[in-house]
Amino acid sequence: MKFIVLLRVTLVMTFVVIMLGAYTRLADAGLGCLIGPVAMDI
């Protein structure tokens, strides 16, 4: 019984992680700095 509950929770959490990753990718989220790696050359 506990294994089934653990399996369901794991599947739901995996799905949530995949959906959040897809949202992040589609929202064009990138580095927090607008100028990106150029800031390192200062």
Written overview of the protein:
The structure is a single chain. This protein has 42 residues and is mostly helical. It is built from 1 helix and no strands. The longest helix has 25 residues, at 2-26. The model has no long low-confidence stretch (mean pLDDT 80).
Ranges where pLDDT stays below 50 over 5 or more residues in a row are none
Distance between the termini: 59 Å
Estimated helix fraction:
55-70%
CA radius of gyration = 18 Å
Largest sheet: none
Beta-strand percentage?
under 5%
Shape: rod-shaped
Write the layout of secondary structure elements.
Blueprint: H1 2-26
Which features does this protein show?
42 residues, mainly alpha
Please give a quick description of this structure.
The protein is mainly α and 42 residues long. Helices cover 60% and strands 0% of the residues.
